[in-house]
Amino acid sequence: MVRATDNRLSRILHKPLPAPPESLRRGPLRRRAFTSRLRSPWLTARLGLFLGIAFGTCFVTGLLSHAIQHPPHWFWWPAHPAGLYRATQGIHVATGLAAIPLLTAKLWSVYPKLFVWPPARDVLQALERGSVAALGAGALFQLVTGVLNITYWYSAMPFAFITSHFWGAWLAIGALLVHIAVKLPIIRGTFTGRQRPDRPGPGLSRRGLLAVVGATAGLVTLATVGQTVRAVSRLSVLAPRVPDIGPQGFPVNTTASMAAVTESATDPGYRLVVSGAGKRVELSLADLAAMAQYTVRLPISCVEGWSASADWTGVRVRDLLQLVGASDTAAAVQSLQQGGAYSSSILDIPHAMDPSTLIALRVKGELLDIDHGYPCRLIAPNRPGVMQTKWVASLSVIAS
Ligand SMILES: Nc1nc2c(c(=O)[nH]1)N[C@H]1C(S)=C(S)[C@@H](COP(=O)(O)O)O[C@H]1N2
Ligand SMILES: [Mo]
To answer: What is the pTM assigned to this prediction?
Structure first.
């Protein structure tokens, strides 16, 4: 029974497709339209290997970032090591950027295949080529939307970035796995020595081209990774953000005027509201300053790949929650900002109870600049920047 179905499937998959008319064989479709000797399975497989490593790393770190920001019920993310998210997100953006020259070279190495004749011999080959098209489109989509996001070019993305970048990743990685499975015999052949890298001839060799592509990827990394690795920040000519430029020496994401909080944030009647379990306290800035103050060195680690560390001073979130009788609890943080995706955030138990999680009143010894969240902001370890809520209005216990 299974065999019969197998045979039927196999007949369908290998059903020859009608040959298209010869009159269409023009331009790139004509015989021997592509002559570069550099293209070969040897080169393509090596570019593919590097690209696969870059995409795989980018995929895993991206899923992690997504899970931290939109946690499924089984997900648990620790508060320590404090700089872990800074590293994983730095790697996410860096591998994505390094993939740009790798993907460009890879597409160059295979694009004549777009024009092979006939376009597909049988149904199976048509399906396989369809999956390659999905892979190419998915990979390009991920890199383009990623770059648009880190360069704040939202007007070029008339769709929801997070949703489309998330599903685009699954599409690309699914198509990548199919592609690797289909090409495995060829890939193996090129790594077991049956395929020689070069045939003697003049000009750039395949090894040479691979080295150039590798060096370009390295250069892109060096010119951007300084947005999170301070030691090379002076080389960051291509990075959209530099860690030490901005008020108080670090970047601003949303300004107070963009968030429309200038008035409420500077209102002398400002009170931080802490509530939970039927209790509620209102704290003025003087009340907050009278509580035990702590200083922690923690980074803002933006999802966009930049990060900056600073010494923050303020009151512990767990001390504030204690004021309404809550301990061992999660909490919600709400900004003075109305609406907008980043105007509130959730502190899960490990983060809410961590002694280094503060409602910060000061940074680097000074009152917060209004663009950094004056009168107070959340700062917690091992957490995406989008969850470090500025201009905090209230803190409330989440009943578990
Ligand atoms: N209320 C509010 N808080 C916010 C944001 C925001 O838009 N509104 N942006 C977040 C993002 S995306 C980052 S990276 C950090 C940046 O903090 P900074 O501007 O002080 O560097 O603030 C976070 N806190
Ligand atoms: Mo951010």
So the answer is: 0.90
